[in-house]
Amino acid sequence: MASTAVQTPIPWWSGNARLTELSARLLGAHVAHAGLIVLWAGGMTLFEISRYNPAIPMYEQGLILIPHLATLGIGIGNGGQIVDTYPYFIIATIHLISSAVLGAGGLFHAFVGSDVLSESKGIGGFFSYDWKDGDKMTTIIGIHLILLGLGAWLLVAKAMVFGGLYDPGAIAVRVINAPTVNPGKIFAYLFGVFGKEGMAAVNNLEDVVGGHVWVGTLCIAGGIWHINSEPFPWVKKVLIFSGEAYLSYSLAALAYMGIFAAYFVTVNDTVYPTIFYGPLGISPTDTGIITNRTWLATSHLALGLVLLTGHIWHAIRARVFDAGLTFEQGVVNSPAPEMGTFDTPVNASSLTQSYIHTLPFYRNGLSPILRGLEIGMAHGYFLLGPFVKLGPLRNTQWANLAGLASTIGLLFILSVCLVLYANSSFQGRKPISGELPNNMKTLKSWNEFNVGWIVGSSGGAIFAFLLVSNL
Q1: Residue 8: what pLDDT?
Q2: Counting Cβ atoms within 10 Å, is residue 245 exposed (0-12), middle (13-18) or buried (19+)?
C-alpha cells in the first residue's frame, strides 16, 4: 500500500475518512481517540468526587461514573453507602496517566514513521493490513474478541477474588463464590424462560457472574478460531470487504448494544441497583429529579439510534461503491469508498452557502491571523460562562477566576489540536487543493491562524471575565 494515497478529494471536515488508506495515521487517530476517552473518564471521576454529597441520594446528583464504581463494590460499605472515596481518586489518576501514554502513542503515529504500516520498519509492519484481505480481517476480529473475553473475565475475577460486587439483595458487598455455570440456565435467559425481559430478567449476581464466565470463554474461543481461520466462501459472497463496510458493521454492533443497554438499565435493578441509579423506569422522581437511571437509559437510546442511522448510511454507501457506482453520476466507475459526497439539500443550498461565506473562516479579504483572531474572540467569550456556572468552585468567591483559568486552559488545548491538525494535514509545507480558502492551504497560514486564535480567544475570555466580575 503506497503512501502516495495521501491526496484524496475528501473534504477536510470528513475526519478520519481522510485516513482510510493510511493505516499508520488511522492507527494514530484511534489511539489518540482512546486517550481522549480515558482522559474524560479520569477527569470526570475527579469532578464527581469533588461534588459528591453523601447527604443526598446518589441517583439525585447527576453522577455518571461513581455509581458504576460503587456497583463494582469499590468504596462501598454496608447499606450501600460510600465509606471511602480514595479508591475513586486512585482509579481516576490511573486513567489520567494512561491517557497521557495513549496521547503520546497518537502523536507518535501522527508525526513519526510512514503513512502506512506496511512500510514501517520493525514491529509496525506486523500490524499492517489490507481492507480486502479477508484472512487478515478475521485475525483482527479474533484479537478483538480475545480482548473482550479478557474484559469479561476481569469482572469475574473482581466478583470472585478481588473483593466481590455490591448485591442489592444483601444490601452489602459480597464475594460471589459459586457463579452459575449451568449452560441450560444461562442460555435460557436468551429465550425469555425467566421473564419477558429476556437477559434483563436476571435477578441474582450468581447468574450475572456465570453469564460473564460463558461470555468470556466463548469470546476467547471464538477469537482463537478467527485468528486461525479465514472467511468461508459464502461469507465472502455476502459481506463486502472495505473500510466503509467494516465501519457499517461496527456501527450496527454498537447500535444494538446501545439500544439493549438502554432497555436493560430501565428494567433491571440487580445490575443497576436502585440505591445508586434510582427507581426503575425513566420517569422523574416524585420531587421532579431526573435520576441517573433515566440519564443512562435515554442517552444510550439516543446514541444507539444515531449509530443505527450511521450503520444504514454507510452500509448503503459501501454496497453502492462495491457495485462500481457513484452517488453523483449513477454510472459505473472505479470503486472508491473514500471519494464520497456530503452534500444534502440543507448544506448545499444557496442560502446555506451564502451564510457560510459570511463566517470569518471563509469570508473574503481576511488574513489567516485575522480569521483566527475573530474566531478565537467568539470562542473565548462564550466558553467562560459554562466553566463559571458549572465548575466545582461555582458557589465560591473564586468561581469567576477558576472559570477564567479553565477557559484559557481549554483554549490552549484547542491550540495544540490546531498544531496537530496543521502538521498532519499540510506536510512538506506545500499548498494543497480542496475547499479551504486560498490563504488557508499551507502550514504557514495555519500557524498564523493559530497565533490569531491564541490572542483572540484569550482576549475574549478575559473580556467576558471582566464583564461577569464587574456587572
Answers
A1: 41
A2: buried
CA distances to 81, 149, 341 from 9, rounded to whole Å, are: 57, 40, 10
Contacts of 296 (CB under 8 A, 6+ apart): 64, 261, 262, 265, 272, 277
| Sequence-ordered list of residues with C-beta below 8 angstroms from that of 370, at least 6 positions apart, any chain | 360, 452
Apex 100 CA angle, 98 and 102, nearest 5: 70
Amino acid at 123: I
76, β-bridge pairs: 82
Q: How far apart are the first and last CA of the chain?
A: 61
Per residue in 283-300, pLDDT (tens digit) is 888 888 899 999 999 999
SS3 for 327? coil
In the beta sheet, which residues pair with residue 167?
Answer: 172
Q: 444 near 365, Cβ under 8 Å?
A: no
Say how far apart CA 376 and CA 310 lie, in whole Å.
32
- Cα 233 to Cα 231: distance, rounded to the nearest angstrom: 6
DSSP secondary structure letter of residue 361: T
Cα-trace Rg, the chain = 26
**d(C-alpha 105, C-alpha 140), whole Å:** 20
Task: Give 87-99 pLDDT, tens digit per residue.
Answer: 999 999 999 999 9
Give the residue ranges of the chain where pLDDT is below 70: 1-16, 122-125, 326-345, 347, 427-434
Tell me if 311 sits within 8 A of 248, measured CB to CB: yes
Bridge partners of residue 172, in order along the sequence:
167
CA distance 409 to 261: 35
Separation CA 75–CA 355 (nearest Å): 53
> What cell numbers appear for 220 in the block?
476467547
Give pLDDT tens digits for 218-237: 999 999 999 998 888 888 88
Q: How far apart are CA 302 and CA 415, in angstroms?
A: 31
- What's the pLDDT tens digit per position in 291-349? 999 999 999 999 999 999 999 988 888 888 887 776 555 444 444 444 445 566 676 77
Q: What is the rounded distance in angstroms from the CA atom of residue 241 to the CA atom of residue 245?
A: 6
Q: What CA–CA distances, in Å, run from 134 to 45, 123, 239, 241?
A: 40, 21, 10, 7
